[in-house]
Structure formats: C-alpha cells, structure tokens
Amino acid sequence: MSTNIFVRQTNPQRRVVVTGMGMMTPLGLTLNESWQGLINGKSGIGTITMFDPSAYDAKIAGEIKGFNPDDWIHKKEQKKMDRFIQLSLAATKMALDDSGLEVREEDKPRVGTIIGVGMGGLPVIEAQNDILKSRGPGRVSPFFIPAVITNLASGQVSMAYGFKGPNYAVTSACASGAHAIGEATEFIRSGRCDVMIAGGSEAVVTPMAIAGFASMRALSTRNDNPQAASRPWDRDRDGFVLSEGCAVLVLEDYEHASQRGARIYAEVCGYGTSSDAYHMTSPSPGGAGASASMQYCLDDARLRPEQIDYVNAHGTSTPAGDELETEAIKRTFGDHAKKLWVSSTKSMIGHTLGAAGAVESVICIQAMATSTVPPTINLDNPSADCDLDYVPKVAREKKLNYVLNNSFGFGGTNCSVLFGRI
C-alpha cells in the first residue's frame, strides 16, 4: 500500500485532481453499472414504485433500485438518516475505496467534506408529519431534525471517517453538486486542505415532491412511455423526470496524489459560477447567466473555447430551458459551438436535482477516461432552435482533452466545472 504524504504548504496555484469516484443512479448501484447503461443508451426511468402514483399527474421517476442501507450502515444508525444521507455514505465508501487513500490521524484536519443537497430529507419530513398529525407531537422522532437537514450528508461522512477539515453543505437547487465540487477545489487550490470529499446527493421521489413539481407543470406526464419521457432538445419534450442520485469524488492536491502513487482520473481545471438575477424558475433571456458561468469557467481554466471537446449539458427536457442553454452555448463558444459534442445524460437517468452536478461531473470524467461520449436518447425531432450536435441516440468515441459540465438551478444560480486530461 502506498504511503500518504500530506503537503503542508500554502500555494494558490496548487493543481487539483480527481483520484476516486463513487456513484449510484437509476441505472445502477455502482459507477460501472451506471456507465454501462449510459453508453448503451439505456433509460433508468419507470413508473413510481415508492408510493402509489395513481392520483398524480406525473406517475414516473428515476428510482435507485435495490439500494439496501444494511450493506453500508449499521442498523441502529439508519434511523438517524434520511435516504439522501445513506446514499452519501455509500457513494463516499466507494470513492474512498476507489482512490486507495489512507489518512493518518494527524492529517485528518487537512481533509474536508462538502456534499451538495438541493432539498434534503423530504421522505422523513413527510413520514414524521403523518406521525405528528395522527399520534401527536410526543411521538415525533428525536432524530427527525438531524435526519433531514442538508448538511448532515457531509456531516455524517465527516464523522464516519474522522475528517476534521471544512464540513458543510452547498444548497443551490440543481447546481448544488457542481458548486460543492467547485468550492472543494478552492480549498485545495488555496492550500487550506490537501484532500476534499465532494459531491451531491438527492432522494426525493415522494408524494410531496412529485405533486409540487407537477403543480408547476415542470414534470413530464408521458406516463404511458416512461423511458421516452426525458427527451432534451426534442420538439415533443414536456418537462423533466424527477430522479434519485448520488455521486462523490475524492479531490486531491496534485503533488499529494503523485507522491502517494495515486491513479489520477482527471484535473479540475476550471470553476465558474453566476446568477441570472432574473426569475425564480425561468432562465434569463438569451441564456446570459448560463453563458457567463461557462465563460468564467473557461477564464478560470485559462482555456480558449475551441479547446473544449465535450459539454455535458444541464439539458433537463424543459421547453424553455433546453432552448436557452443552446443559446448560451452558442454565445460562449461562437463558431466552435457547431463543432462541440453536447449531450444530456438526463435523457437516461432523469434529473437528480441537487446531485445532478456531481453525477454529471463523474460522467464527464468517465467519458474522458474511456474516450466515449454518452448519447442523448429520445432525440427524434430536434426543435428548430436546438441545432447543435447533441450526440443523438448512440454513444461516440473520441479522445477528449477537456470536458465541461453545466448545472443550473431555480433562483437563477448557474455553475460550470471543467475537467482536463492529465
């Protein structure tokens, strides 16, 4: 086993690399299972089984099938955690095992955790509300609050491994996971930490979430054909598909990773973030805010637009969002936009909300590592204003040197993260 050498120096130019990844999606309980499904154009969307959806307008979702917390968490600890926390612990264990990282006790203050969560513990909130109404306040669980608050995904990871560096959640709607990776990167770049556990988790396939998003007319109601429901850029798209997901990455200072002989997947080259300052749920006209996020990310990486090979788009399958993201990509990349490969893996796994930025970052890195770009499935008839190369239906192979991940959220928040080949 290699020795872990922690570099105790302050250098704002420190490089940040990815050395471990763990992921669960509607396509599988491991990164490899999900990846095989993605490159084969498989959909993980189906009729909801977690509750009876018959009375709901939207009856479909992307559920993580077969997850058993007993495989990851002691029985008596499970009652203290909503499902999003359980998924975070499982994905973190996968990522740490994948990285081969071993942390000495004296180095644990140099290791931090930031896990993005958009909505927190809705399943437990809904269950405990039923108990409150039917059995009274004295029967509400003493673990209710720590089971549902967003920062306990990161907090439980920190406690499980004794990591004593920064420990908090990023909550920025559907950009949460991407912001978590970006903020974790800054801790390493600045020399305040040597290792960061970063990612995103979400598990809100619940009656309240489905009803709430459906009442906004945000969800697809293609209930008779779930696997065709998520169709980014297609003229027949009618909303996104709500899904569960979790992904965690081990980020390290490059020198630290090199000295311990770690396998390095990719470098985190750029991080950009912006605000539309326009509307609660609608993107700004012309995709101005999204474009700013991408441009800031390119500037941070000191790269030119034509150096980017692939964009994993936010691509939610909403009528307005897909068109405006297309405009934003054209605005950012100019003539190169037509040469870019752009795909939305939400066409296969749905929208994992606060986990999306982390899940899709792992997908970007895996695409670069395997020289394979997952497709956008269900793209039968592109909208007239959606005219980029969205890698329709079938995966493609090409060496990728730089890939960019977009994540945008309600409240006008935008985030882009850029990864490069080492």
Any key phrases for this structure?
single chain; about 425 residues; alpha/beta; Peroxisomal Thiolase, Chain A, domain 1; 2 domains; 13 helices; 14 strands; about 30% helix; globular; disordered N terminus
Question: What topology does this entry show?
Answer:
Elements: E1 16-24, H1 31-39, E2 46-47, E3 60-61, H2 75-78, H3 83-99, E4 111-116, H4 122-135, H5 144-148, H6 152-161, E5 167-168, H7 176-189, E6 195-202, H8 207-215, E7 245-253, H9 254-259, E8 266-275, H10 288-301, E9 310-312, H11 319-333, E10 341-343, H12 346-349, H13 356-370, E11 372-373, E12 396-397, E13 402-409, E14 413-420
Parallel strand pairs: 4-5, 4-6, 9-10, 9-13
Antiparallel strand pairs: 1-7, 1-8, 2-3, 6-7, 8-14, 11-12, 13-14
Helix pairs in contact: 3-6, 7-13, 10-11
* CATH superfamily caption of the largest domain: Thiolase/Chalcone synthase
- Which percent bin holds the helix content? 25-40%
**Number of individual domains:** 2
Low-confidence stretches: 1-11
Radius of gyration: 20 Å
Number of strands: 14
Report, as a whole number of angstroms, the end-to-end distance.
Answer: 23 Å
Overall outline? globular
**Number of helical regions:** 13
Describe the structure.
This protein has 422 residues and is of the alpha/beta class. It has 2 domains: 244 residues, Thiolase/Chalcone synthase (Peroxisomal Thiolase, Chain A, domain 1, 3-Layer(aba) Sandwich), CATH 3.40.47.10; 151 residues, Thiolase/Chalcone synthase (Peroxisomal Thiolase, Chain A, domain 1), CATH 3.40.47. It contains 13 helices and 14 strands. The strands form 3 sheets. The chain has a 10-stranded mixed β-sheet with strand order 5-4-6-7-1-8-14-13-9-10, with helices on both faces. A two-stranded antiparallel ribbon has the order 2-3. The protein has a two-stranded antiparallel sheet with strand order 11-12. Helix 7 crosses helix 13. The longest helix has 17 residues. The protein is globular, with a radius of gyration of 20 Å.
